[in-house]
């Protein structure tokens, strides 16, 4: 209670249930794809581009655990963004890298994320199936690609 009281006056505690406070402070446990889509921003692409439409379809088809893992990959949080002032949540930014970034093979690179900015770099894959496979691989392997994880788990650091 003392920690929460540093951010919220104690006299407001009785106005909320524990579940309401959790949702307000941490976001919801479920990922609402429609809400993410409604607030999304685009750079170098648009919502009608084939690879962007395929991305939203793949995200919609994922189960709750996969969606949560996607958020962890793209935002470093496993819960959906809580609505802020004006009722809007943090906006997912979808960017498309320049074609030369793929070295001539659009299906080569994995999607990447900048978690500080809730930003996803999504290549223009040749099909929805390729996008699904690449996104799943990137999401599943993201912790293994993190330099902090590699350093922490390196020889001599395991017991630190």
Short description:
This protein is of the alpha/beta class. The protein has helices at residues 2-5, 18-26, 33-39, 50-61, 64-75, 128-145, 147-153; strands spanning 41-43, 93-95, 112-114, 119-121. Residues 1-148 form the HECT domain.
Structural account:
With 160 residues, this protein is an alpha/beta fold. It has one domain (29-153): Hect, E3 ligase catalytic domain (Hect, E3 ligase catalytic fold, 2-Layer Sandwich). The protein has seven helices and four strands. The chain has helices at 2-5, 18-26, 33-39, 50-61, 64-75, 128-145, 147-153, and strands at residues 41-43, 93-95, 112-114, 119-121. It has a four-stranded mixed β-sheet, with helices on one face. α5 crosses α6 (128-145).
Features:
160 residues; alpha/beta; Hect, E3 ligase catalytic fold; four-stranded mixed beta sheet; 7 helices; 8% strand; ubiquitin-protein transferase activity; HECT domain-containing protein; HECT_dom; Hect_E3_ubiquitin_ligase
């Amino acid at each position: 209670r003392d920690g929460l009281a540093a951010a919220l006056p104690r006299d407001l505690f009785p106005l909320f249930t524990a579940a309401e406070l959790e949702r307000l402070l941490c976001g919801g446990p479920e990922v609402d794809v429609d809400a993410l889509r409604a607030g999304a921003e685009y750079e170098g692409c648009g919502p009608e581009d084939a690879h962007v439409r395929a991305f939203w379809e793949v995200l919609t088809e994922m189960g709750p655990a996969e969606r949560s893992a996607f958020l962890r990959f793209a935002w470093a949080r496993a819960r959906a963004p809580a609505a802020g002032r004006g009722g809007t949540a943090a906006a997912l930014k979808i960017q498309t890298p320049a074609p030369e970034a793929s070295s001539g093979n659009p299906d080569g690179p994995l999607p990447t994320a900048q978690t500080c900015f809730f930003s996803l770099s999504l290549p223009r894959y040749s099909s929805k199936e390729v996008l699904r496979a690449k996104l799943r691989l990137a999401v599943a392997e993201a912790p293994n690609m993190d330099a902090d994880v590699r350093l922490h788990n390196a020889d001599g650091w395991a017991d630190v």
